[in-house]
Amino acid sequence: MKISDTVIKETRYIALFSIVMSLFMQAVYLIILRRFDYTVLLGNLLGLIIGVGNFLLMGIGVQKAVEKDTDDAKKVLRFSQTARFFGIFAFTVAGVLIKCFDPIAVIIPIFFPRIAISARQIKK
Length: 124
What we know:
Layout: H1 5-31, H2 38-66, H3 70-97, H4 103-107, H5 112-123
């Protein structure tokens, strides 16, 4: 299956916005918290992968659903949402429990795509 150009374009926007927000978060760790080590970087990276990956998989799920009839589309979207939720949960728990990741730096970037979507709506 080929990923649509719209999904790729929107995912790029989300990824770029999330990277900028991650850099800002790194600066906050450095300046305000005076704590900046490899665990913050790794946690931030894992959180970015979780957040942006979730958005990409959501776009792919919607793309698949559009190609189906109504009942099948609902099933595809329900499965996609459930699978993404468990994936987010599993990777977040792993990021919090494994000592090479800063737990806060794992959790915060997961919300960056939602902020990007809201910022885009406000801008329009």
